[in-house]
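Severity: low
Component: inverse-folding endpoint
Summary: output formatting inconsistent between runs
Steps to reproduce: submit the following structure tokens with default settings.
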């Protein structure tokens, strides 16, 4: 799929992952790339981390101390020894063995910093925080390169179908500002996480980093933006999520869109890594079918990408599942774009995924 004129974009599909062991070249701004497999995303992550000259900030839900996780820890330690400021923020629930691992200790010994989000010691003082997880997957290098999406760093996910977006653009500063807030909370003991209002990115902006958090006044920022876009969709809506346990407004905007004649498609795995969640996902899928929504089960493996493509000019790649946990309880983030080339490239992959799916 050819990008819009003026963009230096690279798309790597899941089947091309073994041959994509280098990061996409980013020569002009804004430059972006879409990576549609964990192998490709991990190769790109390692390459851009190794290129860091000033700073690295990583936040991750599942960061293994083995396999790809250890490989990245080794790169981070090397960069820290070269004077790069390295900060790694990982969620306790998703990354429990990380803090005490040899790789994390080596990173700290090299001068890097490691912080854990919501370890058990804070649960007694703030019991509700047990349900609030750092679910974002962002990587920011030198304050200008941003990688974000659904990919975790765990060997068991190596062959999963996932999507990460890589962009060299000032939007990286927005993601870094959100990282700094979460870092201050986890590493410096700020309690509770600061609640601060933030103006939603206007529709006219081409690129923005949109978040949700249970601690902020704008905690539903992403789902508000997404649901507003669906509410005003004119032609087409495509959404993907590994799990489907949505909130009330989701049903309303989806049903109203189909009544307006909008073609609405939702893709989930035909079988996910969470069999119990699948029971609920398929139950909700049947409810969507009754509202005129087309629902597909991806049969090419575990579909973990969290994507949205609407009307040819609005697209999102992020960490949000279509579930109440992502919308109400987690720290989440997504790259949102009005760039038509970005949308076209994402849509090309989504259509290929739909061709590898069966109607539910």
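Observed output (run 2 of 3):
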């Amino acid at each position: 799929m050819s990008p819009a004129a003026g963009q230096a974009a690279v798309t790597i599909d899941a089947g091309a992952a073994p041959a994509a062991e280098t990061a996409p070249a980013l020569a002009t701004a804004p430059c972006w790339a879409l990576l549609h497999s964990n192998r490709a995303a991990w190769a790109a992550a390692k390459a851009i981390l190794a290129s860091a000259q000033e700073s690295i900030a990583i936040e991750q839900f599942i960061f293994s101390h083995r396999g790809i996780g250890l490989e990245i820890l080794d790169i981070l330690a090397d960069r820290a020894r070269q004077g790069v400021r390295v900060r790694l923020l990982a969620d306790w629930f998703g990354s429990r063995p990380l803090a005490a691992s040899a790789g994390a200790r080596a990173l700290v010994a090299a001068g890097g910093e490691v912080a854990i989000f919501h370890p058990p010691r804070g649960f007694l003082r703030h019991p509700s925080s047990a349900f609030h997880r750092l679910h974002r997957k962002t990587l920011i290098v030198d304050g200008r390169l941003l990688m974000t999406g659904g990919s975790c760093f765990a060997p068991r996910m190596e062959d999963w179908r996932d999507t990460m977006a890589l962009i060299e653009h000032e939007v990286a500063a927005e993601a870094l500002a959100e990282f700094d807030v979460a870092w201050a909370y986890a590493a410096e003991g700020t309690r509770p996480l600061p609640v601060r209002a933030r103006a939603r990115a206007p529709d006219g902006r081409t690129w923005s980093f949109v978040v949700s958090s249970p601690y902020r006044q704008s905690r539903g920022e992403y789902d508000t933006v997404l649901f507003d876009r669906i509410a005003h969709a004119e032609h087409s809506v495509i959404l993907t999520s590994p799990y489907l346990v949505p909130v009330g407004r989701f049903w309303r905007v989806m049903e109203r869109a189909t009544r307006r004649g909008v073609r609405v498609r939702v893709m989930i795995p035909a079988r996910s890594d969470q069999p119990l969640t699948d029971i609920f996902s398929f139950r909700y899928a049947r409810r969507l079918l009754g509202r005129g929504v087309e629902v597909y089960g991806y049969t090419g493996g575990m579909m973990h990408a969290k994507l949205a493509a609407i009307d040819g000019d609005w697209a999102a790649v992020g960490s949000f599942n279509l579930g109440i946990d992502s919308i109400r309880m987690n720290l989440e983030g997504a790259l949102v774009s009005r760039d038509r080339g970005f949308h076209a490239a994402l849509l090309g992959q989504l259509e290929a995924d739909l061709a590898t799916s069966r109607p539910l």
